[in-house]
User: What shape does this take?
Amino acid sequence: MKFVILFLLACILLALFWGLTGLLKSDQGSQRLVRSLTLRIGLSIGLFLLLLLGALFGWWRPHQA
Assistant: This one.
């Protein structure tokens, strides 16, 4: 499960930098920035829901010393 969370975080960062390059190379009528930010928002909401469901169903266990 840790791998899934790290993968989603990496995808969110990749979409963020993809949006930054779309902003820097903005052409009139280009949808690259909008698509990348929409993707980033979708991934962020998905990660939040995954963490929320994991806490609800007990997928995450606190470490005991």
